[in-house]
Write a structure and sequence with these properties.
Number of helices: 8
Low-confidence stretches: none
Distance between the termini: 67 Å
Largest sheet: none
Order of helices and strands: HHHHHHHH
Structural class: mainly alpha
Strand content: under 5%
């Protein structure tokens, strides 16, 4: 009986988590929509780019998010195309979390299973190498 009570989550805890997540998301959207990371120094800089001059796969993501929140899809794509192209993939995963697991088991296994993770890993590595080769050719 005691173990069952330990795993129960109260509605107050759920509401508190929902409030914290919602507040954080609203704050995130407000900051990234209102302040351009190019113009303000309080945004974190990439340590890899700072120390080596090479861009990591995430370089440009803050600027891309700012542009996306201001509905500038082309500018966002120029800053970080991988981030922009990954948004539909992330949205599908969020939708899958609210759909019956048995109904979408096969699709989810294909899109988010071990093979998909390996493919995504190699896409990120290829993007990382490719963007630095192009950067140094220009």
């Amino acid at each position: 009986m005691l173990q069952q009570d330990y795993h129960k989550v109260s509605s107050k805890q759920i509401l508190l988590k929902l409030f914290i997540i919602s507040t954080g998301l609203i704050l995130f959207v407000y900051i990234y929509r209102s302040f351009n990371p190019l113009a303000y120094d309080f945004f974190p800089k990439c340590p890899l780019k700072y120390t080596t001059g090479l861009e990591c796969p995430g370089c440009g993501s803050q600027r891309a998010i700012h542009q996306l929140l201001n509905f500038n899809l082309i500018a966002a794509f120029k800053y970080n195309p991988l981030l922009v192209l990954s948004i539909p993939y992330i949205i599908v995963e969020i939708i899958f979390r609210f759909v019956d697991k048995q109904l979408i088991y096969k699709q989810r296994k294909v899109l988010y299973g071990p093979l998909a993770i390996k493919i995504i890993f190699w896409i990120v590595i290829a993007y990382w190498i490719g963007r630095n080769i192009i950067l140094h050719l220009l």
